[in-house]
Amino acid sequence: MANVLVVHGGGPTAVINASLYGVIEEARQQDAIDHVYGAIGGSEAIFKERFLDLMAYPEDKLKLLLTTPATAIGSSRYALEQEDYEAMPAVFKKHDIRYVLLNGGNGTMDTCGKIHRACKDAGVCVVGIPKTVDNDIAITDHTPGYGSAARYLAETVAEVGVDVKSLPIHVCVVEAMGRNAGWITAASALARKKPGDAPHLIYLPERPFHEEEFLEDVKRLHEEKGGVVVVASEGLKDESGKPIVPPVFQTGRSVYYGDVGAYLAELVIKKLGIKARSEKPGICGRASIGLQSAVDRDEAVLAGREALKAAIRGEGGKMVGFVREETPDGSYRISVNMIPIEEVMLYEKSVPQEYINDRGNDVDEKFVRWCRPLIGGDIPDYMDFQELYKESKR
Q: Quick check: is 134 catalytic?
C-alpha cells in the first residue's frame, strides 16, 4: 500500500477543489492506495509535515469540493529553497508517500519539476495537475480554472453592457485579470449576442497599447452610442514593453498590478471630457461558484483522476494536458495527454496574434469559437424593449 500527497500552489480557481475531488475518487478505485493526504497550506506544508488524510471524510462532505470556491486545503506562494527540496525525500518516506501531485500554474509546475528531480531516485513519482484562470500554461489546449473565469467575465460584461445601454451617458472600463496573457480579457467577447453589443473595445497585453488610438476609438463610439464598454487587461504595455500603469508591488512572479481601469477612465475624462468610470472584478472571477462552468468543473475532476493514474503508472515528471479533438460534427471533445514537465516549467502561453484584430482593439470569431465550449453553455438572454421599439419604427 502507498499514500498520495496533493499540494495546491498559487492563486486558486473555481474548480481547483474539483481536481482534488477527482484524485480522491480515483484513489478509492485503486487497491494500491491507502491514504490521500492534503498538504495544508501549500508547498511549505511538505517539509513542515502538515498533512490531513482526506479519505477519512464521508462522501457527502467530500462532494462539497465540487462547489467550494478557492482551495479547501489552502495554497501559498512560498519560495522553496534547495535545502527544502533536499529534505523532501525523507519526509515522503516517513509518511509512506509514493505519489505527489502538485496542482497549480506556471510557478507550481516549475516547483513540480524540481521536486521530481529531487525525489525520482527515492522512488517517489511526482505529477502536475494544471490550474490557472490565466490559461497561460504551455502546450495544453487550456487549463482547468479558465473556463469558469471566462464565463464570469463574459456574464459580468454582458450585464454591465445592458446597464450602460439603458443609461448611455458614460464610458465604463472593466479591468480583467490575466497577468501577461489576455485569455480572460478576450473571453469578454462572448458577452455579445448581436452586432453592437458590449464589449465595444477589448485590449489585450499581446499587443502594444496606443493611447491615441484608444481615445480615437472611444470618442467615435461615444458619439455613435452614448454608452461605451471597454475591457482592458491588467497587463497592458506600451510599445517599449513598459506597463502603462507601474505595478504597485512585484516579487518574482507575484505582481500587484496598478489600476489600469482607473487610469484609462481618467484618460477619457481628462482628454475627451466624457464621463467615465472603472470596474475591477479582480478575484471575484476566480472565486465565483455561482458562475462556475460545468465543463470546467468536469474537466478539473478528469485532470485529478488522470494525474493519479499517471503517477501509479510511473509517469513522473509530467503534467496532465488537454488535446482538443477534431470531430465529424464539429462538437467539442478533448482527450488527455501527458506532457513532460520541462516543456511547461515557467513557459507562458499568450493569445495567438491570429485571434486579435488588426487594430488591436478586439478579438475575432476564431477566438470566440475556440472559447465558447469552455464556459459551459451560452450566457442568458435579456429583454430589450428599446430595440423592439426601434424595430417597430422602421
A: yes
Residue 393 placed within a domain: no
User: Residue 246 in contact with residue 258, Cβ under 8 Å?
Assistant: yes
How far is it, in rounded angstroms, from Cα 186 to Cα 153? 9
CATH code where residue 336 lies: 3.40.50.450
**Does one domain contain both 237 and 380?**
yes
If asked whether residues 36 and 181 sit together in one domain, one would say no
328 and 359 share a domain? no
Give the domain extent around 300. Answer: 2-144+290-343
Neighbour-count burial of 380, counting CB atoms closer than 10 A to its CB (0-12 exposed, 13-18 middle, 19+ buried): exposed
Tally of CA atoms within 13 A in the half-sphere of 181 that contains its CB? 20
The answer on 305 and 365 residing in a single domain is no
One DSSP character per residue, 321-381 reads EEEEPP-TT----EEEEEEEGGGTTTPBPPPPGGGB-TTSS-B-HHHHHHHGGGGTSPPPP
Secondary structure element (H or E) that encloses residue 152, with its range? helix 146-166
For the chain, residues with pLDDT lower than 70 are 251-254
Residues 6+ away with beta carbon under 8 Å from 219: 272, 274
The reported pTM is 0.96
Grid cell for residue 56: 477519512
Q: Are residues 92 and 182 in the same domain?
A: no
Catalytic site residue from 84, 134, 217, 362: 134
Q: How many helices, marked H, and strands, marked E, lie in the chain?
A: 13, 13
Radius of gyration of the chain, Cα coordinates, nearest whole angstrom: 22
Task: Look at the chain and report how many structural domains it folds into.
Answer: 2
Residues 189 and 272 in one domain: yes
Residues 284 and 154 in one domain: yes
Q: Is 394 within a domain?
A: no
Looking at the structure, tell me whether residues 155 and 132 fall in a common domain: no
147 by DSSP, 3-state: which?
A: helix
pLDDT tens, residue by residue, 186-224: 999 999 999 999 999 999 999 999 999 999 999 999 999
* Residue among 373, 374, 345 nearest 113 (CA): 345
CA distances to 23, 92, 96, 251 from 112, rounded to whole Å, are: 17, 15, 19, 20
Residue-level pLDDT at 256 = 74
User: Got the DSSP string for 34-79?
Assistant: EEEEEETTSTHHHHHT-EEEGGGS-HHHHGGGGG--S-TT------
CA–chain centroid gap for 212, Å, is 31
